[in-house]
Design a protein that fits this description.
The chain has helices at about 15-30, 35-50, 130; strands at about 65, 70-80, 85-95, 100-105, 110-115, 135-140, 145-155, 160, 170, 175-180, 180-190, 190-195, 200, 210. The protein is an alpha+beta fold and about 210 residues long. It folds into two domains: about 10-50; about 65-210, Glucose Permease (Domain IIA) (Distorted Sandwich), CATH 2.70.70.10.
């Protein structure tokens, strides 16, 4: 199976802003402008935190498990009807200080990927659902189970990045994209037993969201 090798300590989405901030900081150090040194230094530290890319090595060996694709907190859980099919809807929120890497929920295939470019309104804005940048994905496991996922951007200077492609095979926890700040909705079939509750903290590539029933 293909597995993304973006294993450098910093995400590749952050290389350019980090290099630019470091260059500007060096200039202000050489010119002795201490106030600007402090401001740009703080910005550089913020970039280093935002674009950190830690290893996650929780290999569970459970083909029935669905692993969280994002770091963040579970906002809500409900049942909803999608195309005449009852599904479990899990809403997750990740902030600027969470790890921003997106990871595959299980061993399988990224079957679909649709990107809508847009603006970056606050999620509580009434037009955010219609206008914000959004990515819709579908994954199918090796055993034929399918899940759907939506990533919606929140206020951020950095766009959603998806490195995976339709039809690409992925291993559980492999990196497929970047979301600096936003909301993720996971749609699971009704035969999934959930392992999280509202308010729970989750970690991408490690936390079990649920398990498919045998």
């Amino acid at each position: 199976m293909a597995m993304h090798t973006d294993t450098f300590i910093l995400s590749k989405q952050g290389w350019l802003p980090i290099v630019l901030a470091a260059t500007v900081l060096l200039f202000f150090i050489m010119t002795g402008l201490h106030l600007f040194q402090f401001l740009i230094g703080a910005l550089l530290i913020a970039f280093l935190i935002l674009f950190r890319n830690p290893e996650r090595n929780a290999v569970l060996g459970e083909t029935s498990s669905v692993i969280s694709s994002v770091d963040g907190v579970v906002l809500g859980i409900e049942e909803t009807l999608i195309n005449d099919r009852m599904m479990k809807k899990i809403t997750l929120l990740n902030g600027l200080w969470n790890v921003s890497m997106l990871r595959a929920p299980f061993d399988g295939v990224m079957e679909g990927c649709r990107v809508r470019h847009g603006v970056s309104l606050a999620l509580h804005h009434p037009l955010s659902e219609a206008l914000n940048e959004k990515v819709v994905l579908s994954f199918k496991s090796l055993s034929g189970n399918e899940v759907f996922m939506e990533h919606l951007s929140d206020r951020s200077c950095f766009p959603i990045a998806i490195d995976g492609e339709e039809g690409e095979k992925m291993k559980e926890g492999s990196r497929y994209g970047f979301l600096a700040r936003g909301r993720t909705i996971l749609y699971l079939p009704s035969n999934v037993t959930l392992a999280v509750h509202p308010g729970a903290d989750v970690r991408a590539g490690e936390s079990v969201i649920g398990r498919f029933d045998a």
